[in-house]
Write a structure and sequence with these properties.
Layout: H1 6-11, E1 20-21, H2 32-48, H3 50-56, H4 58-72, E2 79-82, H5 85-94, E3 104-107, H6 113-126, E4 129-132, H7 143-149, E5 154-160, H8 172-182, E6 186-189, H9 201-204, E7 208-212, E8 224-228, H10 230-233, E9 248-249, E10 252-253, H11 269-285, H12 287-306, E11 311-313, E12 323-328, H13 333-341, E13 345-346, E14 348-351, H14 356-361, E15 366-371, H15 378-393
Parallel strand pairs: 1-13, 3-4, 3-5, 5-6, 6-7
Antiparallel strand pairs: 2-8, 7-8, 9-10, 11-12, 12-15, 14-15
């Protein structure tokens, strides 16, 4: 339960001084080292000039790329830096060959609403279809059912690995085995997985994976990584280019042969260097160790919440993450969040737009979401549980 010095890590995290944070799946608390990396670079920009500072930091930024690649089992050339997970996923989707009438896209029931909105818009324009992959009895994606859905009109399979509205961990590798056998592109939204559970893109069998840096990894907002499998890259044509991604040489556009064909020349070096510090910290602690501590704390929280009258834990699945979703009879999740905020406890509250297919299928309009980090402590879990019981008692 305590394989590293949690108190030392908390002392190195300014946000731990001002309240209890259980919204790590929204955005976690950065370490002082990450903050100082950002501040120090901004001071250099102010002193030397932004362009000059960026030139001097080019080697350091490539170190960040190498660290991001190592974190997910990829090669540096397969990593692009983006401003958000939405931008990363959307850029890769827009680079696919255009859809045609009758084409099909298969999605998991927990597909993130932003991805789904992009897919629906493109499908409606082309006359294509979106089909939802059935779930197993435990609510997780059913890879066997997916295999039976494959035909020659399927153009993409998209899966949100760890949904935004609960503790489910989908079997992304099982889906990858189906798509690889069928030769169908496979996108994974790993926004809630990065820095939370081990990731190995080869084992997952995905062609594209995206994740934001701000969540369990504890990186700064405004950073995200986009993984594009090297052999898949040639099938993608970005919807826009610039002097980095597609320079014109002798009058001819020359696309980069690495994932940076999705990057623009303008990027935030301060934030990316901060991301690099967060990556180094996560790798030093060990993702397996991080995952184990999160799982233990989340398990205790679920057990506590299940014992509280009027509280229902809404998590699906057998393999569970550190995202604990629940509802209180008669109290909207947004009000639960506000009531806990008054006690200096931060949680999230998600509505239908975040995971529209799953929320609609389960008849839910909102869920309260308490997401656990390795920074949290058993005493904080107890404090949150007691506060939820107090709120529920008023219902």
């Amino acid at each position: 339960m305590n394989p590293f010095d949690v108190e030392e890590l908390r002392l190195e995290t300014p946000g731990c001084e001002s309240g209890v944070h259980f919204n790590h799946s929204g955005a976690s608390l950065p370490s002082r080292s990450t903050l100082e990396t950002i501040w120090n670079y901004l001071r250099r920009e102010a002193a030397d000039g932004p362009m000059e500072a960026a030139n001097d930091a080019s080697a350091l930024l490539e170190d960040v790329r190498a660290g991001a690649a190592s974190l997910i089992g990829a090669m540096p050339d397969e990593i692009a830096f983006m401003g958000s997970g939405t931008a990363a996923w959307g850029a890769a989707f827009a680079a696919l060959p255009p859809l045609a009438a009758g084409d099909r896209i298969l999605v998991g029931r927990q597909e993130w609403g932003g991805n789904l909105a992009t897919i629906q818009t493109a499908a409606a324009r082309a006359g294509a279809r979106i089909d939802t992959i059935p779930t197993r009895e435990d609510g997780a994606v059913d890879a066997s059912a997916l295999a039976s859905m494959i035909d020659d009109r399927v153009r993409l399979v998209s899966l949100t690995w760890l949904p935004a509205n609960g503790g489910l961990i989908n079997d992304a590798a099982a889906v990858g085995r189906v798509t690889k056998a069928a030769g169908i592109p496979y996108f994974i939204d790993a926004g809630q997985a990065l820095g939370h559970i081990p990731i190995d893109v080869a084992s997952l069998g995905c062609d594209v994976l995206k994740a934001a840096g701000r969540k369990f990894l504890r990186g700064p907002r405004g950073t995200a990584i986009l993984y594009v499998r090297q052999e898949f890259l040639q099938r993608l044509t970005p919807s826009y280019l610039d002097v980095v991604s597609g320079p014109i040489v002798d009058g001819v556009v020359t696309l980069r042969n690495d994932a940076r064909r999705f990057e623009a020349s303008e990027n935030p070096p301060a934030l990316l260097l901060g991301l690099g510090t967060a990556i180094r910290q996560a790798r030093a602690l060990g993702i397996d160790v991080i995952h184990g501590r999160i799982a233990a704390l989340a398990g205790t929280l679920r057990a506590n919440l299940r014992s509280i009258p009027k509280v229902t834990v809404r998590d699906l699945g057998t393999d569970l993450s550190g995202i604990v979703s629940f509802t209180i009879d008669g109290i909207p999740a947004s009000e639960v969040r506000a009531a806990l905020a008054e006690r200096q406890i931060a949680i999230g509250a998600n509505g239908v737009p975040y995971t529209p297919l799953d929320m609609t299928a389960r008849g839910l309009d909102q869920i309260a979401r308490a997401s656990v980090s390795y920074l949290n402590t058993p005493s904080e879990v107890a404090l949150l549980s007691e506060a939820v019981a107090e709120v529920a008692a008023r219902a």
